[in-house]
Amino acid sequence: MDVKTLAWQEKETVVSLRRHFHENPELSQKEFKTMDTIEEFLHKYGIETVRVPHGGVFGFLDSGKPGWTMLMRADIDALPIKEDPVNMAKERVCISENEGIMHACGHDGHMAMLLTEAKILAQHKDEWEGKIVFMFEEAEEMGERGIAPLLRYLRDNKIHIDTCFGTHVMWNLPAGKVSILYGSALAGAYFFRVKLHGKSGHGSRPDMAQSPIECFISIASELRSYRMRAVDPSDSLTYSFGCVQAGHEPNIIPDELMFAGTARCTKNDDGLAFRDTFLKVTKGIAELHGLTAEIVEDQYFPVTVNTKECVDLARKSVTEALGSDALDPDCPMWMATETFSITESTYPGVFFFTGINDPEVGSGSPHHTPKFDIAEDGLVTGVAAALAYVTRALAEKPETPFFHPTDLESMLKLT
What we know:
By secondary structure, the protein is of the alpha+beta class. Helix content is 36%, strand content 24%.
């Protein structure tokens, strides 16, 4: 397959799909019309689908020739962000029609690329071997993520996966380039949300109250020194509070405080150790202050780690099909987090970064910001790069480590 030519021939397809999804974003766990559209196009391409409750959509494509089964994934949810009609340089080519909801992370591009890849692969079944499972994942951003029901569906229905592929558009990587990292590609993350239940009182008699605010200050102070005394300086672990809510009057001590945040890590051992310490510190200090700590959210997502053999073949495939200029070898690990880490902890695979930065287009604002935008030519390169790797991997079947099925439940217990 001349994947570069085929991808550019389908530029109108990937652009029109991206604009449709961008104009019609839906929040996590509410992507119903989005999934209708995905299934509509997959059926149009002759691809059978299954919709998994609270998970997403699978598409199944068989070349008719024996071989490996490749899983290709895209996430589909948008964010509760009000979009700026002007990007970094000019008015947008398309804008959300759902007020206060925006594809500010690039999932519109992910869906468009994967559907375009599905179309090309379906039209050229005679040029590759094996099977492909297209996975469109709900709720990657927030809430009860869709990845667990999807992976359990594959396991429970005995659908064997040999290897997996995913990609994420990258705000600061030039359009026309992809990056494929050895080892860790994205950070692990611990999401926490806690309610501290105390006893309210008057500001003149704090001794008669049990202040959740004072308790939170103690928890925050204890955690502040954690990284210096527990994490190797050559590794990275960061944490932040994204939300603190309590009280409303200066002379009333509230009876409840809610705080939430995340920790990010480059090594799973560090992230899991922080989680353990966080829970012990929070519960212990709450008890010391005479309060109770209700753990509302307690989710850990592992580091996204690429399989070496897959990276070797991916880099070779992309450079041979698209030229050496298409591969950016210097892109650093991204401290963002992906639920694809759980998929890659279950099956050997690789996760690309697809460049979408172009000052002339006006893209270049970071993810999850109102000015975030996509240079759509970068999506065409993303389609070509994905096809180059996927068809090559199905043909060459690189030797990869064997992943035991029990790995799935051990990973899902962390979320």
